[in-house]
Design a protein that fits this description.
Layout: E1 3-5, E2 23-25, H1 30-38, E3 43-51, E4 57-61, E5 71-76, H2 100-107, E6 121-133, E7 137-146, E8 160-168, E9 174-179, E10 204-205, E11 215-217, E12 220-225, E13 232-241, E14 248-253, E15 263-268, E16 274-276, E17 282-287, E18 297-304, E19 320-322, E20 328-333, E21 345-354, E22 360-370, E23 376-378, E24 382-384, E25 390-393, E26 396-398, E27 405-408, E28 417-420, E29 427-434, E30 440-449, E31 454-461, E32 469-476, E33 483-487, E34 496-497, E35 501-505, E36 508-515, E37 520-527, E38 537-540, E39 543-545, E40 548-554, E41 561-565, E42 571-574, E43 580-584, E44 588-596, E45 600-611, E46 613-614, E47 629-630, E48 640-642, E49 646-647, E50 658-659, E51 661-663, E52 665-673, E53 679-685, E54 689-690, E55 703-713, E56 718-727
Parallel strand pairs: 1-22, 16-22, 24-30, 39-45, 46-47, 49-56
Antiparallel strand pairs: 2-4, 3-6, 4-5, 5-14, 6-13, 7-11, 7-12, 7-14, 8-9, 8-13, 10-11, 15-17, 17-20, 18-19, 18-21, 21-22, 23-26, 25-28, 27-29, 29-30, 31-32, 32-35, 33-34, 33-36, 36-37, 38-40, 40-43, 41-42, 41-44, 44-45, 48-51, 50-54, 52-53, 52-55, 55-56
């Protein structure tokens, strides 16, 4: 019995790609592309050959595009480098030969009415190799793409590709250059004529991103049955049909050409092969290929290492069982936090499974259990000279699991960070380290202040409207002879330097700075104002028809003179609050300035609206379209009424209705009574009319009827009347 050992294969491709587009690299030989990038587990390959131009095959990384595959091998009927934007894959003309198998495939597309007219293929790219599978089936994933989309659907330019298999068929007989590149669930080859927006559209994508093909398919999986240990031949091919201009390509997913059995991977919280007591756990993940999930599978495993099962970690039992439909089973290792410093403890799990050939496949995974870590922080207290200074301090954490975060009590994170001091004593900054397991440790860093310079008190005295205020500063702790500086508001309050008292000031904020040989201190104080002027004004009336006489009342406070601007070109300077009056023809804004001395003033405004008076109702006889204020003297016309004395409602469209002829009416109430005084019709509206019927639609008899009306005119005028009308048919 042969024993095979599988291992996890990791590929790192060191090419810096431009963000947002596909990457291709054609520096590899066809054998390297097949062995390193196409074939996965459970398949051994040999006799790799490639027919075509070397520029037609390459490695690709699709993570910057929407091709749907992460990486792998790409083949094209043109240059593969033209797949990368802003290039266009339409210039790959090599004058290369075609391929007979591809021509037969192109001619067999029943959904393409032009398939029988395709007579040649050109610029064929053909990759071939022999392989021996270790399972009972092989699968791989691919994407078909073409620059022929959508213009040349169902034409002779129906570029072809195919995946051709030769070898023993487990169902009997043999595969003989059998094309596997078929529309899922059909026997139709995949071309631009069998997958497009109008046919099998669920497999079509027409919005390329990061590559230059016009259209392409979704990722499509191919799975075929094989006999374990037998030799097979596989042929990947793509070519132009009928011409050699627009290109077609096929993307083969890296590592997907595989036929593998059970495998084991190990995942831990910290991302490595170590877990910590009281913190993290490890998952031993048993996996099998998704196409082998149609049967129940038991996998036996052994546990080795110096960690004791049931003591150092939870109990696990063999075998693991894959239920039908499951492709993975997880065994979770939870280490026991025993508080004992034991050193690293190893767990190794080895699984055994039979492949389709009857050979034993062995897979192994390991993880270390580590004691709970000891956390510590190295920091150093510091001294700063002045309270406004800041200093860069460092905290160095040690111990802990995984990524470590540092959080400071001033909101800063990381290290180093800036800290500042406080004039009134030392400042303690707390720094907390937290590891990936949420273990925490806190240390303290103390900042001492060497500054002695202080502003003990700032004093101020209020000002009137004349500059009579003052400011004063009391300081202490200066080293050497200090420099004092005041700054304040207003054009007359320039900087005052090297004094602690400043007099004859107006109201406002004043700022004091003292500087000694080491430090600088700043503070501010406000000089208030005593009884400032307050301008107040009222106008009566504030609106009306012109000419409008307006009385203006001055109720200002704390002022000794006033300036009026009446808004009509007239102004007045006066020392009293006497009432003023003006006559206005147009609207104005009145301004009053209340003054106190020469330094203080306050201003207020009042608006007077003057309109044109007249009748503003368009229905009135004396309507004035220029009037903006209605003066209440609108005059309205009197309504008039005329009524016929006979009508004949016989349907001849002549005199079929009885109605009133009115002028200047806004509403009419009409009532019709028969000779017994019964109401046969009544209605209200602009022009009600009687059709000779009762309210329920019964024809009225011929004869004389009595009518009465109430007509309303403009301004609620009313006109009442009555009469008789003869009805005959």
């Amino acid at each position: 019995m042969k024993i095979f050992k599988t291992a996890l294969f990791t590929l790192t491709f060191a090419i810096q790609a431009a963000f947002g587009q596909i990457v291709v690299n054609n520096a590899f030989t066809p054998a390297q592309l097949v062995t390193n990038y196409l074939v996965g587990s459970g398949v051994s390959v040999s006799n790799v050959t490639f027919t075509g131009n070397n520029g037609q095959i390459a490695y690709f990384n699709g993570s910057g595009s929407n091709i749907g595959l992460p990486f792998g091998v790409v083949m094209s009927s043109g240059y593969v480098t033209d797949i990368v934007p802003p290039n266009e894959p339409n210039t790959g003309q090599f004058n290369g030969p075609g391929d007979a198998d591809l021509l037969a495939t192109a001619q067999s597309v029943t959904s393409n009415p032009a398939a029988g007219s395709i007579t040649s293929t050109n610029d064929a790219a053909v990759l071939e190799f022999d392989f021996i599978p270790s399972g009972d089936s092989v699968n791989f994933n691919f994407v078909f793409a073409s620059e022929e989309y959508l213009t040349y659907v169902n034409t002779v330019f129906n570029d072809a590709f195919g995946f051709y298999l030769s070898g023993p068929n487990p169902a009997g007989g043999a595969y003989n250059v059998e094309n596997l590149a078929l529309v899922p669930g059909t026997s139709e080859p995949i071309t631009i004529s069998t997958i497009h927006p109008g046919f099998n559209s669920e497999y079509y994508i027409g919005n390329p991103s990061g590559h230059s093909f016009n259209g392409f398919t979704t990722p499509i999986a191919i799975k075929f049955a094989v006999t374990c240990g037998q030799s097979y031949h596989f042929k990947f091919a793509v070519a132009d049909c009928q011409d050699d201009y627009l290109d077609t390509g096929v993307f083969l997913e890296g590592g997907s050409f595989s036929s593998s059995g059970v495998d084991i991977a190990v995942a831990t919280v910290s991302g490595d092969t170590a877990i910590y007591e009281g913190c993290s756990s490890a998952d031993f993940i048993f996996t099998r290929p998704s196409w082998q999930t149609d049967a129940l599978l038991n996998v036996e495993f052994d546990v080795a290492g110096n960690a004791t099962i049931g003591t150092d970690y939870n109990t696990i039992t063999s075998p693991v069982t894959f239920q039908v439909g499951e492709d993975s089973v997880i065994l979770t290792i939870n280490p026991t936090d025993d508080g004992i410093n034991e050193g690293p403890e190893l767990i190794t799990i080895t699984a055994y499974a039979l492949n389709a050939c009857g050979d034993t496949v062995v897979s192994t995974g390991s993880v270390w259990i580590l004691d709970e870590p000891t956390l510590s922080i190295l920091e150093q207290d510091t001294i700063i000279q002045c309270k406004d200074d800041s200093v860069l301090v460092t905290a160095i954490p040690s111990g802990g699991v995984g990524d470590i975060t540092l959080t400071w009590s001033n909101g800063a994170t990381g290290s180093p960070v800036y800290v500042s001091g406080d004039l009134f004593g030392s400042v303690d900054y707390y720094v907390t380290m937290t590891d990936q397991c949420n273990n925490t440790y806190t240390d303290t860093l103390t900042v001492e202040i060497a500054q002695t310079l202080k502003i003990d008190t700032l004093l101020s005295g209020p000002s009137t409207c004349e500059p009579t205020g003052y400011v004063s500063a009391l300081t202490s702790g200066a080293t050497g002879v200090p420099l004092n500086m005041w700054t304040g508001p207003g054009p007359n309050n320039s900087n005052f330097i090297d004094a602690t008292v400043w007099e004859n000031l107006s109201s406002g904020w004043y700022y004091f700075t003292i500087q000694d040989n080491i430090c600088v201190e700043n503070d501010s104080v406000f000089v208030d104002i005593l009884n400032p002027p307050n301008a107040q004004l009222s106008v009566t009336p504030d609106n009306g028809c012109g000419p409008l006489q307006v009385t203006m009342t001055n109720t200002s406070e704390n002022a000794d003179s006033y300036y009026w601007d009446f808004g009509n070109g007239q102004t007045l300077n006066i020392n009293s609050t006497d009432t003023q009056s003006q006559t206005y023809e147009t609207s104005v804004t009145v301004m009053l300035v209340a003054k106190q001395g020469t330094q203080c003033a306050d201003t207020t405004y009042a608006s007077v609206y003057v309109g044109s008076c007249g009748c503003t109702d368009p229905n009135a006889l004396n309507y004035n379209p220029l009037a903006t204020i209605d003066n209440g003297d609108c005059q309205y016309p009197i309504p008039t009424v005329e009524a016929p004395n006979v009508f004949s409602p016989n349907g001849d469209n002549s005199n079929d209705l009885f109605f009133l002829n009115t002028t200047n009416a806004t509403s009419i109430e009409l009532v019709i009574l028969n000779r017994w005084g019964n109401v046969v019709f009544e209605s209200t509206g602009l022009n009600p009319a009687w059709n000779g019927k009762t309210g329920n639609g019964v024809l009225c008899d011929e004869g004389v009827y009595f009518y009465k009306y109430l007509v309303k005119g403009f301004n609620d005028q009313e006109l009442e009347g009555h009469g008789f009308v003869q009805l005959f048919r």
